[in-house]
Amino acid sequence: MFFHFTVSGQKLTAEEKRILTIIDKNHEEAVQFLEETVNINSGTYNIAGIKKVGALYQEVLDDMGFATTWCDMPAAMKRAGHLIGERKGTQGKKLLLNGHMDTVFEPDSPFQTWQVQNNVAIGPGVTDMKGGLMVMLYALKALHEANLLDDRQIIVILHGDEENAGDPITISRKDLIEAAKRSDIALCYEPATGFNDATIARRGSSSWALKVTGKQAHSSSIFTERTGAGAIYETGRILNRFYEALQEPYLTFSPGLMLGGTTVHVDSSGTLGNASGKANVVAKEAYVKGDLRFLYEEQKEKAREKMKAIVAESYPLTQADITFEEGYPSMPPTDGNMAVLNVLSQVSLDLGQGAVKPYDPGNRGAGDISFVAQYLDCLDGLGAMGGNSHAPEEYMDLTTLKDFVKRSALLIYRLTR
Questions:
Q1: Which ranges in the chain are annotated with CATH 3.30.70.360?
Q2: Helix 297-312 and helix 231-245: axis angle, to 10°?
Q3: Which of 230, 317, 375, 388 ranks highest by number of CB atoms within 10 Å?
């Protein structure tokens, strides 16, 4: 579905100016709230920590008149669940706001607390994405305090497992997809990639596993008719052919784990294993695990077909098999996504912050918004701006934080008029 908005040249209304005044008033409180959430460990596997930080977000949503529910996941999934908040209404576009509460930093990480140095906040998840959740909530808070959320449908879903989504996806993302089907536009608050960038497209991700066998023999007979090339040479051939045949924009195919030798053992996760072999023995087995990233579903399928064809070719006396596993779908660029970006860009221009441009999807990973991209128009990258995500010394620029809240608040306001 494509929506076309007529906001070009629009100046700030009295109501919009009132929203900005409220954001200025609440800014110190907003930063304190962010600090409080960052200081609560909410690593993906820390179920108690995620529920503790989720209770803070739930309290804010409750105070704004959202009907909130905590959705637990089945115990076998080992995930905390997610928070849903909803206000019902009939006016303007129906919005779905999405983000995640979990971080990659578990309780045993040495990186645990908030610090501020020269207008830079440092802490676990400060940009990815507790800063984004603060931007979302304090944009909504300003609209609420200005009495501008009445009769507007807004659904907020905050996941507790974005960094490692619970399996099966059909359960862990069921509520998000159902909410998307009742909405017109999805806004996601993953970190901003730049002050004047936003995301209208994200690549999807999937994985592949390659198993190769050869004939075990004395190394002096390698390449002969009776021995062939061995499993490791066949693996090298396949990977090199992938490199030669699959190069195209937005498609990547990275081998992340490789084992080879006389024997190979891989655990059930496919991420840990061991191999044994000798220099004077032709390798009998090899294993490779990798990922495949793509911008379009058709691009993914064509790449898989090429990979299968390459695997089907073989050096003498070797055999190989490749399997694929689904992960995150892609969020391809659409006219509808661009239309929402244009509204954001006009808001930014009216605030004197400059135009906002689409960010290169080749530089962005997969995200939760991709699960709903087929159902409605989407815009991502609306959160806080910083760097070192997923690494110690993750940081956020405090000088731009208020600007992002203002931009988001006016975007929501204009979309819901």
A1: 205-328
A2: 140
A3: 230
DSSP state of 96: E
Please give the pLDDT value at position 116.
97
**Which distant-in-sequence residues (6+ apart) come within 8 Å of 383 by Cβ?**
99, 127, 129, 131, 132, 133, 135, 136, 189, 190, 191, 192, 404
Residues 128, 103 contacting (CB under 8 angstroms) = yes
Segments of 82-198 assigned E as strands: 82-87, 91-100, 115-117, 120-122, 152-159, 185-188, 197-198
Q: What is the pTM of this model?
A: 0.90
Q: What is the pLDDT of residues 312-337, one digit of tens each?
A: 999 999 999 999 999 999 999 999 99
Instruction: Please report which confidence band the pLDDT of residue 10 belongs to, taking 50, 70 and 90 as the band edges.
Output: low
Asked if the bond preceding 168 is cis, omega within 30° of 0, the reply is yes
Comma-separated ranges of CATH 3.40.630.10 domains in the chain: 14-202+331-415
Of 318, 126, 358, 94, which Cα lies nearest the Cα of 222?
318
First to last CA, the chain: 18
CA distance 57 to 51: 10
How many Å separate Cα 86 from the centre of its chain? 22
Q: Which residues lie closer than 8 Å to 17 by C-beta, 6 or more apart?
A: none
pLDDT at 11: 87
- Answer for the pair 345, 196: CB distance below 8 angstroms, yes or no: no
What phi, psi does 107 have (nearest 5°)? -60, -25
What is the dotted CATH code of the domain comprising 205-328? 3.30.70.360
Question: Among the CATH numbers 3.90.960.10, 3.40.630.10, 1.10.10.10, 3.40.50.720, which is that of 14-202+331-415?
Answer: 3.40.630.10
- 267-308 per-position pLDDT tens digit: 988 889 999 999 999 999 999 999 999 999 999 999 999 999
What is residue 281's DSSP assignment?
B
DSSP for 211-276 reads EEE----BGGGTTSTTT-S-HHHHHHHHHHHHHHH--BTTBEEEEEEEEEESEEEE-TTSS-EEEE
pLDDT score of 2 more than 60? no
What whole-number distance in Å separates Cα of residue 296 and Cα of residue 115? 40
pLDDT in tens, 35-83: 999 999 999 999 999 999 999 999 999 999 999 999 999 999 999 999 9
- Per-residue pLDDT tens for 364-408? 888 999 999 999 999 999 999 999 999 999 999 999 999 999 999
